[in-house]
Amino acid sequence: xxxxxxxxxxxxxxxxxxxxxxxxxxxxxxxxxxxxxxxxxxxxxxxxxxxxxxxxxxxxxxxxxxxxxxxxxxxxxxxxxxxxxxxxxxxxxxxxxxxxxxxxxxxxxxxxxxxxxxxxxxxxxxxxxxxxxxxxxxxxxxxxxxxxxxxxxxxxxxxxxxxxxxxxxxxxxxxxxxxxxxxxxxxxxxxxxxxxxxxxxxxxxxxxxxxxxxxxxxxxxxxxxxxxxxxxxxxxxxxxxxxxxxxxxxxxxxxxxxxxxxxxxxxxxxxxxxxxxxxxxxxxxxxxxxxxxxxxxxxxxxxxxxxxxxxxxxxxxxxxxxxxxxxxxxxxxxxxxxxxxxxxxxxxxxxxxxxxxxxxxxxxxxxxxxxxxxxxxxxxxxxxxxxxxxxxxxxxxxxxxxxxxxxxxxxxxxxxxxxxxxxxxxxxxxxxxxxxxxxxxxxxxxxxxxxxxxxxxxxxxxxxxxxxxxxxxxxxxxxxxxxxxxxxxxxxxxxxxxxxxxxxxxxxxxxxxxxxxxxxxxxxxxxxxxxxxxxxxxxxxxxxxxxxxxxxxxxxxxxxxxxxxxxxxxxxxxxxxxxxxxxxxxxxxxxxxxxxxxxxxxxxxxxxxxxxxxxxxxxxxxxxxxxxxxxxxxxxxxxxxxxxxxxxxxxxxxxxxxxxxxxxxxxxxxxxxxxxxxxxxxxxxxxxxxxxxxxxxxxxxxxxxxxxxxxxxxxxxxxxxxxxxxxxxxxxxxxxxxxxxxxxxxxxxxxxxxxxxxxxxxxxxxxxxxxxxxxxxxxxxxxxxxxxxxxxxxxxxxxxxxxxxxxxxxxxxxxxxxxxxxxxxxxxxxxxxxxxxxxxxxxxxxxxxxxxxxxxxxxxxxxxxxxxxxxxxxxxxxxxxxxxxxxxxxxxxxxxxxxxxxxxxxxxxxxxxxxxxxxxxxxxxxxxxxxxxxxxxxxxxxxxx
Length: 945
What we know:
With 945 residues, this protein is mainly β. It has 11 helices and 68 strands.
């Protein structure tokens, strides 16, 4: 027995450091496709419930050179979309593809061929890995993977306009680990074979490739050396530099040498390129070398923090946050929480200044140079910096996220830089002005410039798409589709209920669960979703007694209690005592209202904190629940998930980002670590206490931050003392969330970086549960118990919902039956059936959804009879194995109506305006027959009062 335990522990620790091979990933995509085709739930469709007005991160646009109103837009994790009406509307192009993760797109407009390099390259926390390079020759109906599977993140695709089979690709490579499949790749046979033509080293990839507009032979490539870990990110290195090819990417030579005028060495960060002609090329650099001490920015931190407390509180948040950004401190501090300390007497402004200065000194003795623009007029042989002053307030501390530059094809001196905000220069980079307006998101990634109409711009940013026709003086949005990137979702108890969600860099929003896309709000002036909070929106909790009381916030533990009815907002995050070390908060800090008492609020840092008064005061109820501090510039060693048992007050679980799961059964008096026999050092994405058995708990682990895509899902029936893997047949993909069905203990729901699954037997086997939703990352799941709806928060395609009525009623008896029909909800009779208020409006079309289960693919006969056993509806249906749905429009054949009217002269049964007769108040019999077996259920229409 002891040997078995030791062996299990050894295997667990070994598995944690293993990576899934590219072949295994490709095989898992095949398995996922098979699961989708064979799923018992392939007829149960998810419905997208928005939102759209706040969009997801755009990474690339490709515009038809002959018709600039036609273009494609690539979203980081939301797939590829197409518009042929200048962005007024879009259609998805990649919904049938095995991934929605986009790094770059390229279109052969003459032949219509679409190329997508998968895997975003911006190196953010949610820059998902790709699966290679995809190709479609039928406008996205079908996709073919053309290889480069292990590149993970593809930055650029260049198509030879004369020979579309000749293509050059830039690959960044793995985000978190070293690998060989990175650099420049070239094909001359349309992707059938590839040759690697540039390789720097196994931790340096190619972040950009640019070509001379009229000479495909002249190309430039930007190499980027970086090292990202969950706890640290170094975005620069001596191997970063600019290469040039004069033979269409077949061979390359380093042009950013020590004597070229372009910076070299450890401080060289991300580089963006823009080529005007064979001789003229621009480069924007995230320069991480330190500034000279006498060149520090004019923003004086001590001056801002030296005013009296009441004056300090009057300082604009934007100004304070700008200071903090300049010093790279937004991962630790925000204006809102510093002001809260001062307002509540916790610190004086001078004390807060000392705290911030201490953090600055711990980061560096001087600021980094930041954004710089260099220009070459001799084909890259020599470079000159275009400006004398520093370009402040553009890259801040995260230039790795931007570093993109564009040049106007008709004006060599007009350039555009993407950052925070987007800026332009009309004098070749000597001076710059901002062209970011109030309806444009702050973080920018791409600017397309019309080669035939200067000033016509298409801008992609973290908030979606914007278009300008006057060089950025005015913009309009092209956000009509659901591509928001959600971190977390929740619901309230209203009828109809509302959905809450926190989004990447787009705040926290709330909207109605019955949302359907409509442009009517442009007429009424009120969008159905409402913004609650800015920043990177995080978790939300709603007081069940009063839905106007909402707890939510933004990154790194900045949470608030919002009273929506009285328009009040109070900062509530716990803070250490003056002599204690600062708490460590996760990017997505977990927060939880107790199901036993809605005044009790839990929040995780590296401790678990409890408030008995909704955040007014806090008490740590645990020791440090992590493995401790890990040196780096990213917060780590934090609690990432909290769960409370609904069956026992004081039974709490936590999971940390460094792999620890802990439990307390006495409200925090004592704690036990229960993760020793699980794979080690993995991010614990979810711990979920069962609502059916107090000893039962579920856990999901995630190796994404080690480029490990193994599926880690576990269950325990003894408070986590022993664990059993329930990953079973789930295709390889990191796991983000697991949820237990509140009505049926056998049913589990699970979200991965590439889909949604359901199990009917506590995880022994899993079914695909994604019909109606593309292969997108699922970050969060929540069930609205009264409505029996599952809410799915995706990181790329906004929010979906699906009703669980039939799923919850599937049991062993149903699964063992040949055919089974589910009970109907009663339907209220309405005078609106078949009628409309206007000759131009569509008539109201009622329906009854007939749900039934079949144990095999087979033909069945579906029939509806009235109380006189007259057949109202009969149809042969090809049933699929699993759940089936047949829609009946409640209409009655005219001959049956005439027969009934002949029998009863007093009967009133009139046709609706659409000519149809509908069921009267009655109880009809719905039968489904397969072979000799027949099942029956009642369909009741009742009177509307």
